[in-house]
Amino acid sequence: MADFHQNGIVTTLHNLSERSIEDLEYDLLHFSRFRPLGLILPSLYSELEGSALPAIIKELKQVPYLSQIVIGLDRADKDEYHKALEFFAALPQHHRVLWNDGPRLKALDEKLQKLEVAPKELGKGRNVWYCMGYMLATGKSESIALHDCDILTYDRGLLARLLYPVAHPQFNYEFCKGYYARVANGKINGRVSRLLVTPLLRALKRVVGTNEYLDFIDSFRYPLAGEFSFRQDVLKDIRIPSDWGLEIGVLSEMHRNYANNRLCQADIAKNYDHKHQDLSLEDANAGLSKMSIDITKSIFRKLATQGETFNSETFRSLKATYYRIALDFVETYHNDAIMNGLTLDIHQEEKAVEMFAKNIMSAGEQFLDAPMERPFIPSWNRVVSAMPDVFDQLITAVEGDREDFLNL
């Protein structure tokens, strides 16, 4: 059972009573009559062949309150797209699969590229962005959740607790971030959040001074969680990154667009485990190494928009400050693990800290070398301004792909 402490400047909604899934779903079914509820699933084709996504679909089949499920499918050829349609046909809810590698959506993407309003990189950010656009295009859902497709510990209670704050008609939340304990197989996971983001935020407060944005991000118990929910209006003006900075970028946009009392975080699961990325000590363009650089740059960019000035000396001081704070955190987590009968490899933890410290400098150098870099995908409001019929074209492409399959 979680405590009831309110930390930071964002409301925390705890799991205090282990309320039953059925009870939560009863409320959500009632809410859905007035505010239709939807779900976005960004997926790789390979996840259809894993163990996590089939179990997720089995759980989703039992969810009674969803009006719409939108699946973004990446890295799939024609035959794999057809297999995906068969795979997701098990869902009883209205659903559509966006074949992102199909000729119709690629043709639309090329049109948007010419107008300079399309994603510049492949990846989860691009997948999520097109799914958000499709949600806006159809207008079938007013409150929407998003979660990953590699969750090994998934049950439908996660979705219910994630959607509840933005579905309840008497709550005024526009956005909810999920959080949970990253503990599985007898050890503490979540290295990037524990060993990079939290100590980096604390180090930045010492180096650049107290800052409302840093306090805001530091209020979230799991800022890198891939699970969040939002009202439909959020989708119109949000600019999301196309790189590994997606989660921090979304939080940054919430900080820019909304007052703190319109945002919250909710305890959505006792335990959470998913596919783990390699540390990638030798390759800065892969795994947790690239992730740490992208995340760090996204924080630097946000601070720069608020008038903070960075130079090489700043980043050297930041690296040293971060390193000391992060090593103290290693001891803290080690003691926490021991008290809970868990294991934590201090050597591996400190190797991660050393890599993250190095990557703080790399992120700083890249930030200084490319000050005009624009990693954010334009908002859908801007896209509609550039191509007024984009939503019609998006729906036509998705329906055309589906009809081709049905006519086989």
From TrEMBL:
Keywords: Transferase
GO molecular function (one): transferase activity
InterPro entries associated with the record: Nucleotide-diphossugar_trans
Source taxon at top rank: Bacteria
Name of the protein: Glycosyl transferase
Record lineage: Bacteria, Pseudomonadati, Pseudomonadota, Gammaproteobacteria, Oceanospirillales
